[in-house]
Specification:
mainly alpha, Growth Hormone, Chain: A, 2 domains, 19 helices, about 0% strand
């Protein structure tokens, strides 16, 4: 066991690979359920489409976000305090998997009671998967050293994106092409869309197995203080750190705001496309492959731009691309052409091209955010600041979906509801302009203030 690593990875040589291997499990849920397959099916078919459907899904997503904001810090602190992280991970994965599997029963024509139950299942799914993700991330510092954490995290992200591309490709060929779907699924009963839930459940269970069995045990401990007091202490320490380091706090605030705007685009982009052009499951899957591929390319190119001009410049360029792209995307009107087929109209092709541009911006905005933090945070407190950034992100993640739901409901317009995205990203852009780009500048500013 090294001084930098809590767990003895020499005794468990596959531990880090096992940690990386869980990324596809999380990505399956994002790609199939939250972004490209189930969410559009839910809004357009089960809920009937239109502004009301978008508002309802926005409300469901916001409730999930609020629940995560309340439960995330609590369970994260409990796991860190009493140990047994793998036990918590298994519980959260089980919750997410069971909820995902139950989405198979999301059929059109449900009565109000059925829709309420379905909404509750969706919220439970979001909570389970997000808490599993929080616990999963908390295991990384115990498996890697400060010199290897970045590479492990980046490899997991790359594997997740690659898996997402392959998964959507498989989904198209297995369930959407040809006269008959695989496994005898009935497309007239929307089973080709509903199967996304059980597939996500299977992926969560499958990909968590290496992490459960090939990583060191996470010993349990007895808490020295009541859990409520420990949670309050975590929040108090986070607030204290932000007061001591206002320059880093500005970056944290800017990042969680612009990431909230990006989250709106990812959550509602496919839903909006399905409503605007009537794209079906196959067309949305192709759209998802294009966007994921663009995001991967953007992350790759953005990393090299980051090395040349720095993280702040890269983030500002990415946010400018995103703001412009969002506005252009939302200005595209549905086609009045009689042309039939996917991308048969100029409007559809324009929408896809702008979405590809947005993908190029999404990758660098996320990746350079992590490198920015590693450059401006004190070396001895980098881990703490990444934790604060995650805590702040979870605390406000519901804001974007809640605003989408509210504005869509008030204006009865899907387009106006989604204008939340460029506005939120724009606020993040403005705040980023005042952020210092490296630790040296922050220290120099502090010394200058001390002498005045």
């Amino acid at each position: 066991m090294t001084s930098d690593t809590l767990y003895d990875t020499k005794a468990y040589p596959f531990a880090r690979k096992a940690w990386i291997a869980f990324a596809p499990g999380i990505e399956t849920t994002n790609v199939l359920l939250l972004y490209f397959i189930f969410a559009p099916y839910m809004t357009q078919t089960v809920l009937g489409g239109g502004a009301n459907a978008q508002a309802i899904w926005g409300l469901v997503t916001a409730i999930g976000g609020i629940s995560i904001a309340l439960l995330g810090p609590t369970f994260g602190t409990i796991a860190d305090t009493v140990g047994g992280q793998k036990r918590f991970l298994a519980i959260f994965v089980a919750i997410g998997a069971v909820s995902s599997a139950l989405l198979w029963f999301a059929v059109p024509g449900l009565p109000m009671a059925g829709l309420i139950i379905l909404a509750a299942i969706s919220v439970t799914l979001m909570i389970g998967v997000e808490l599993a993700g929080i616990t999963y991330s908390a295991l990384l510092p115990k498996l890697g050293t400060p010199a290897t954490i970045g590479r492990l995290s980046g490899t997991a992200i790359a594997l997740g994106i690659t898996w997402g591309l392959l998964l959507l490709g498989f989904y198209i060929f297995a369930f959407l092409l040809g006269e008959d779907a695989a496994f005898g699924l009935d497309r007239t009963a929307y089973e080709h869309s509903r199967i996304s839930g059980p597939i996500a459940a299977a992926a969560l269970i499958l990909f968590v197995q290496p992490l459960i069995w090939l990583t060191p045990p996470t010993p349990r401990r007895r808490a020295s203080l009541p859990i409520a007091g420990i949670v309050r202490g975590v929040i108090k320490n986070a607030i204290g750190a932000m007061r001591r380091e206002p320059a880093i706090a500005r970056f944290v605030i800017a990042r969680v705001i612009y990431q909230d705007g990006i989250g709106v685009a990812l959550t509602f982009g496919s839903i909006y496309a399905a409503s605007l052009f009537g794209w079906d499951t196959q067309e949305l899957a192709v759209f998802g492959i294009c966007v994921l591929g663009s995001a991967a390319a953007g992350a790759f190119v953005g990393g090299r731009i980051d090395d040349r001009i720095g993280a702040k410049g890269t983030i500002l360029i990415a946010l400018a691309i995103l703001m412009t792209g969002f506005v252009v995307l939302l200005s595209i009107e549905p086609s009045t052409s009689v042309n039939e087929g996917f991308l048969a109209t100029t409007e559809e092709r324009s929408f896809l091209l702008v979405a590809l541009l947005l993908g190029l911006g999404i990758g660098p905005a996320g990746g350079s955010g992590r490198t920015m933090m590693s450059r401006i945070a004190p070396k001895e407190h980098v881990g703490q600041w990444f934790g604060i950034m995650a805590l702040a992100g979870n605390a406000v993640a519901f804001t974007g979906p809640a605003l989408v739901a509210l504005i869509t409901y008030v204006t009865d317009s899907e387009r106006y509801g989604l204008m939340v995205a460029p506005v939120i990203v724009g606020i993040g852009f403005i705040l980023m302009l005042r952020v210092r780009s490296d630790r040296g500048h922050i220290i120099a500013d502090r010394q200058g203030q001390a002498t005045t």
